[in-house]
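=== RUN LOG ===
request id: a7f3
mode: sequence -> structure
chains: 1
length: 420
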Amino acid sequence: MTKTKNNLPAFADIVIVGAGAAGLFAGIFAGRAHPGRRIVILEGAKTLGAKILVAGGGRCNVTHDAVSVDAYAGSSRNAIKKVLLRFDVPETVAFFRELGVTLKREETGKLFPTTDSARTVLEALLRATERAHVEIVHPCRVEQIERGSGASDDFRLTGEWGTMQARHVILAMGGKSLPKSGSDGLGYRFAQSFGHSLTEHLFPALVPLILPAEHYGRSLSGIAVRARLEVRTAAGKRLAGYTDALLCTHFGLSGPAALDISRHYTAARFNDPSTQLIVNWVPDETAESLEARLLTAGRASIGRTLGDLLPERLARALCESVGLDPTLGADHLPRESRRALVTAVTSGHLPIMGDRGFTYAEVTAGGVPLSEIKLETMESRLCPRLHFCGEICDVDGRIGGYNFQWAWSSGYVAGVSVGG
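=== RESULT ===
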């Protein structure tokens, strides 16, 4: 049941702050676990489920067919795994099937609703919330959460709309990504007010990367290729790497490869500013095999030789980036120039200037450490009857439905455990 703030009750047994993926899941399972108790979800945004609606290009990548803990970063993998196993992919698929949402697997392993519409997912979740007799009140921004010093004291939630008392609270407020959706980092302040720490850094993840204005990549807007990106130390040690679609844009780089590598590049730069991002535009080729191609290309131009592997515009830009005329015959290519071209193609340095920030990030890296949360219940180890779920936790996954799976899993654990 969706209400306006004018209908807000003065007390609820359980209040969930945030009606995103994790918050709705927590509400559904809290309602199923505790029939008869008053459960309220407070959402500050005008639009419910804004992140769900824009996910996957408006299709909502619900999960991935093979969710591995290796796809996540942040808190320890063992901790993340414990939560994911409580509500896994088969249970997620079955849950949505129960709601009338059938999922289909795409070649990448991503699972989408067969309707190809994110609204199908959101509407099913809202119906399930109503059937669980959970009230959603919005727009109803919580500005402050307090609690007395006594162990039995209730929580007091306050906003422009007034005050509400709650026996149990679940923080499902997200991180700082896509702030227009309502995730502006306020949940972190609430967590800290109850004694929780945050990771040293909170930064955008799954975010497009910016190249300098003069870099050739910015002149190739619209070109997409399968490429490999690697984060390497100045000494050449590989710290992370992904091979996937890479999209050149008017500002730099986007696409799955860039989004996945972004959090690892940023995290590495905090520790070592000399960390580099390296690209292999032809991931099925090595430096040796590409040099062999050029050596045996004969009179064919170097642009055409590379054009057999890459879009023509990209091939030409790579040649020009090392000062070579793309029409130059491969048999007239000096050894040093050939090596420079091979390096640019297979291990070129991308001088990243930064990223597009939380406004364009799909998720936040960092948050409340799982070490401060009881994984069996998602309850705070520092403040009894306060629970967490979703992006507010120090967990972020790769592109492909992994972050939604964390939301479903952690939301389920918090929901079935709260009020117990």
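=== NOTES ===
The CA atoms of residues 223 and 319 lie 16 Å apart.
The first strand starts at residue 2 and ends at 3.
=== END ===
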